[in-house]
Design goal:
By secondary structure, the chain is mainly α. It is 63% helix and 2% strand. Strands 1-2 form a two-stranded antiparallel sheet. Helix 4 packs across helix 5.
């Protein structure tokens, strides 16, 4: 029950004010102040009496420093820590549990808006220095702060640089770079005459191995990977600008544990590992050990033949020096897109891990409204993880599909798939045969599939664990019950398993092309509606969509 001896101001139903603007209004009107004999608040809040009121809260054993409260009244970019948001909610809520919960949510959302404005100003100014933490008044002289900022800018961090590449102002910048690389390779292949070219691995067989006929060089780079990047970049932007701050405010995690920047730095080894694998293993080792050696020796051996080494079997179309340059650029581009894809999976893993850590740090969830808000953020993360995993599996599928076709005796990939379908339906007496060649791409594609599925399962377990967690009381509902409609967990898992089985069966059974077509339809529908028409969860009022 709200204390009748205090002046209560309800939180705004919706708001555009950040926490500085909201606090300025509340302190000036005296929200939460004792009432005088006429029923009016006993003056506005000052830093002294507000600090005293917070320190007098029984459960607040540490109190609050006066200098910290003074920063709230100053015109600066420093906000309020999650702990102090909780105490301010107690003051403005007049010690009523429900009113306190409402004010904690409102203050948390206002804090998220301040953080978003701060980041927008930082990007507009082109600054790279990390803003000071909330509630921490600076005691360093200006010269020391400037020197520290310059030192921070000079120190290179691969983790920070990689994350910032996915944090651009537009979600199309990185996909556009992928498109540009693909178009450049396509133009070069056209100039050198390998965009559509055949060779004869057997008598009477003219096999199409041109650039434009390869799904791993066209569909993958022009459609699948850009969609993956757009979804991931939108998720990362939501998490940094809205989701994480709102979740911290709802859960009341003490001191926000680590900042997002700290978590990025904690994964520095993962970013270096991905970089080593892509540019050393995929580019240097695979290109020089397979394609470059074959072009220099002038024989293919038993490796599969594609447009990269066409100079060996069709020297009248492209010369060996030209093929060396073209294959080097192709593998460098391959390493770059593998790097982009694997870094995207690392960021997806980090977001799910961060979501679980913030929710786990909360001792209890107080109200159904808080549970619903946690459910909204979790649904947003899980939906994006599901979509990214579908696209990741199809990236691996495109690579294996092209490699399997190159090992077959099909004359082009479309006829090869058509013949497989017709033979199973009994409409044609044609069975696909195989050439005596091997493909390293089969192993590479399997590793991409395995990595994607592992990341999806991790996100699935981390988010599902939060949704199954109760509010800390014996009879409290869990998040999944309050967030009506919930997430279709097992449908998502079934789709991922179906796509994985489809990958493994490519070229292994007759009729695999039929299963491939079914999986394409299932994937398209899952991308369109990952929640499978479940009742929509309540979204955050800070702008979640």
């Amino acid at each position: 029950m709200i204390n009748p001896n205090k002046y209560y101001v309800p939180p705004p139903p919706t708001g555009e004010s950040d926490i500085k603007e909201l606090l300025k209004h509340l302190t000036s009107v005296g929200a939460g102040r004792p009432l005088d004999k006429h029923g009016f608040p006993d003056g506005p809040w000052t830093p002294d009496n507000l600090a005293e009121a917070i320190s007098e809260i029984e459960s607040n054993h540490a109190g609050v420093d006066l200098r910290t409260v003074q920063t709230w009244f100053q015109d600066n970019d420093r906000g309020v820590s999650p702990d102090n948001i909780r105490w301010l909610a107690r003051v403005f809520g007049c010690d009523d549990p429900e009113a306190t919960s409402d004010w904690q949510i409102a203050l948390g959302e206002a804090q998220a808006r301040l953080a978003a404005k701060r980041r927008a100003r930082k990007k507009a100014a082109g600054a790279s220095a990390t803003p000071e933490p909330d509630d921490q008044p600076s005691e360093q002289p200006v010269e020391a702060v400037v020197n520290n900022d310059q030192a921070e800018r000079r120190r290179f961090s691969l983790a920070r640089a990689s994350e910032s590449l996915f944090s651009g102002k537009s979600p199309l910048n990185l996909p556009a770079s992928v498109w540009a690389g693909c178009v450049t390779l396509g133009v070069l292949s056209y100039i050198m005459g390998v965009h559509s070219v055949t060779y004869s691995p057997a008598v009477g067989l003219h096999k199409q191995v041109g650039f434009l006929w390869a799904p791993n060089w066209t569909v993958l780079e022009l459609v699948i990977l850009p969609l993956f990047l757009v979804i991931l970049i939108n998720l990362l932007t939501f998490w940094k600008d809205e989701g994480r701050s709102a979740l911290v405010a709802v859960c009341g995690a003490a001191d926000n544990e680590e900042s997002w920047e700290d978590k990025v730095e904690a994964f520095a080894v993962s970013f270096w590992t991905v970089t080593f694998v892509c540019f050393v293993i995929v580019f240097v080792v695979q290109w020089s050990g397979v394609h470059l050696r074959a072009l220099l020796q002038g024989e293919t051996g038993n490796i599969m033949v594609d447009w990269n080494i066409m100079a060996i079997v069709r020297p009248e179309v492209i010369t060996a020096p030209e093929a060396i340059v073209l294959s080097m650029l192709a593998f460098l581009y391959t390493a770059a897109i593998c790097w982009v894809f694997l870094v995207g999976l690392v960021l997806l893993y980090m977001i799910a891990h961060d979501f679980n850590a913030i929710c786990r740090a909360s001792k209890s969830y107080v109200t159904d409204d808080q549970l619903s808000r946690i459910g909204a953020v979790g649904a947003r993360v899980m939906s994006a993880a599901f979509r990214c995993s579908i696209l990741g599996i199809f990236i691996a599928t495109c690579i294996k599909l092209q490699a399997t076709y190159l090992l077959s005796d099909g004359d082009n990939i479309l006829n090869w798939l058509r013949n497989d379908t017709l033979s199973v339906l009994g409409l044609a007496d044609v069975e696909n045969g195989w050439l005596d060649q091997r493909a390293l791409a089969n192993f590479t594609s399997f590793l991409l599939l395995f990595t994607t599925c592992c990341v999806f399962l991790f996100c699935f377990v981390q988010i599902h664990a939060v949704f199954q967690r109760g509010s800390g009381t014996q009879h409290a509902p869990n998040i999944g019950e309050v967030a009506k409609g919930g997430i279709p967990w097992w449908k998502m898992l079934a789709v991922i398993m179906l796509l994985g089985v489809n990958f493994l069966l490519i070229g292994q059974i007759s009729g695999f092309s039929i299963l491939l077509g079914i999986c394409v339809l299932v994937a398209v529908y899952s991308l369109y509606d990952p929640m499978f028409e479940q009742a929509p969860l309540r979204e955050l009022e800070t702008g979640g969509n």
